[in-house]
Amino acid sequence: MNLASLVAILFGLLFGALALLLSPAKAFLAVIGLAGVVTILRFPLWGLLLFAGMATFMPYSTVNLGIRSTVSEAILALTWGAIVWHSFLSRLPATPSLATRPTDQMLLWLMLFSVFPFIVGQVTVQADTSGVANWLRWLLNLSGVFLAARLLVERKHREALVIALLLGTLAMLLLSIAVFVRTRSGAGIASILAMFNYANFDMLKFGLEAMSSRMGSPWTHPNAIGGIMALLLPLAFCFGMTEQGWRRALGLGVACLGAAALLLASSRGAMVSLALVLMWMAIRRVPYTGRLLMIGAALTVALVLAYPPLQDRLATIFSSSNASTEVRFDEYRMFPQAVASYPLGIGFKADPPVPGSHLLGISNLWLNYIYKVGLAGMLLFVAVTVRWWREARPDKGPIRLTKDNALWLGTTAGILSALVSGLFDHYFSFAVVMVALFWLMVGINVLEARRLFPARVPQVKRVAHGKPLIDGAPF
């Protein structure tokens, strides 16, 4: 009996046992799940594509397999397992040396450094959550850059991943907008999130009801969907403008629906960041961006006139008397006390603020890094972004949007927009799944930049006896 027959018999027995022990619905889901696991183990790229679709559609849907985890992170971990297995069998293409990937290299230093604040937090912070699990989840979410380097070497694979991201985003937008239009309440989506097994549902429902005038979504918080739109809308626009047929409709459809969702969610940080990045693109003479700004302004006026609650929201959105604005002022006022109380960071046992303390959190990407992993950790994150910019920055002069550079320009603008939104919110620092999508976008971007700007790629020098040198230093 060969191995294939033995595996088929074992799976047949397993499926039969599931059918006997579980209800028909649970048995069906278990069979689908096992089939998905086997498929990902055979084809790791499919795992990354499935992650992209699931993470943008239902990012915080959970599964309990002894340890409760989001489905998105479970798929990501399984994809890494498939990569390890295929590497053992030598089935994956060779990956360029880490020495020729400066962004990846600096990100690895950040991950290694996080061991120190992790240990500090385990000792100094008292909380019920597991610091080990939170730390490992954060490392897993950062690993998107390395996944891209292993699985997205070919451009057609990067295009397939972008399509998966946009399809998941389109499904999420259609669901969120349809539910909000029908129920006229941000809490209207709560029942659907319950079906997808969202964690802490009572607290989640309470939060959605408290912000019922703003559109609810699978991202649970209106500012979170704003952050994701800031990250993905430039990519959707650039992709749609340079494609034809259904791909063009997909890209432009996500861009239009995303702009509407941004207004309905009323995320100030995302609005400002996208507007600033579009202005930068217009200054760099990227085609259609100036026209897009005018069309967006016209659509904004039309939507505001057609939806009175949005008028009330926008009337106070940038006011200093706005409740969320006042909270942010309090956060900045108390932030020095937080740094003084935890100079080396609070680690990964809890998110700011520390339970039982009189402190507040902080709605800022870089200051949140200081809060969690200390000043040195924040400086390492800055070093990663500097390395990324050196690799991905556009050349001087006008930028021409073409099919060849659409993925590079769209991801560059999206990452810039996400970083600008970090001045107002902290989601792209330690928020699971959102962080994974951010670093996956960075991974796509640096691969495209290395293809378009090969002169920027560091060269590994070699000397006699085959000993490699990098910039004159032994490696």
UniProtKB/TrEMBL annotation:
The keyword Transmembrane applies. Coiled coil: none annotated. It holds the Pfam family Wzy_C. Keywords: Ligase, Membrane, Transmembrane, Transmembrane helix. GO terms for molecular function: ligase activity. Signal peptide: none annotated. The keyword Membrane applies. It is found in: Membrane. It is a multi-pass membrane protein. The chain crosses the membrane at residues 106-123, 135-153, 160-181, 187-204, 224-242, 248-280, 292-310, 369-386, 406-424, 430-447. Residues 255-382 form the O-antigen ligase-related domain. This is O-antigen ligase domain-containing protein. It comes from Pseudomonas quebecensis.
